[in-house]
Amino acid sequence: MAEPVPLKFYGRSKRNAVVPIDTRRPDWLRVRLPGGPNYSELKEIMRGLNLHTVCEEAHCPNIGECWEARTGTFMILGDTCTRACGFCAVKTGRPTTLDLGEPARVAEAIERMGLKHAVITSVNRDELEDGGASIFAATIQQVRRRLPECGVEVLIPDFMGSEDALATVMRARPDILNHNVETVPRLYPQVRPKGRYPRSLELLQRAKRMDATVFTKSGIMLGLGEDLDEVVQVFRDLRAHDVEILTVGQYLRPSPNHLPIARYVTPAEFADLKGEALTLGFRHVESGPLVRSSYHAASQVPDRAAAG
Length: 308
Hints:
By secondary structure, the protein is an alpha/beta fold.
């Protein structure tokens, strides 16, 4: 393993210093407006098949780039979440009935889009006995049936710690099992009030124990008031729980009703954190202001032969 890279943190502010929502974003966070023929085509496919994407529901800043490149993240189990996380733009409320035809429509959309790697996530459905795990499994199976060569990555909720629900997903054998820790443990009461940091770590480790051939992945947002030594400790915790792929990005406030931005983390800091993470043994690290869970997802699949 390479020697640790000394971290150089630039522009560090005091804990919980608040940047108002109307403060102008720095240049490195500017993105182009969505548009172009591929963007329009993908939007038409999604609407025609009555599907949702986290790209739209969570107001992802990369939607223009990703959709024009014909990549996107499908959001299954409806568009209403049973939780109200402080950072998330997805609406909260009482979900509608379960759509059992959704897995087949997702597979059809992936086929029509010509994807080689598909990312599938969901809202939280805590009112369901299995948290929606059976729909995740059915979606993976439908994609495998239509497109055997397509890589499948799932970004799952914590299923309230249910080992049976996780096993349901793992038996469908996704290529990557992703579950985001989102922030440092100290900030969980504000950021993920119904989440539990130890529960998320245990889920990731259980997934690896259930099927060692499935790669595990997690992600964290910066700019919510965390200290950077806390961030590095999260990296260490993830590696200690057998997580292999890591994403690190900037939190961007979806609306004035969401948690404020404590600060903007510089590209130089993201680069230093990537170096630190790699020294800890992650197989792949995406770290940058605009990085999100599925950003450049197709390039994050490690070579299985090299992985041993």
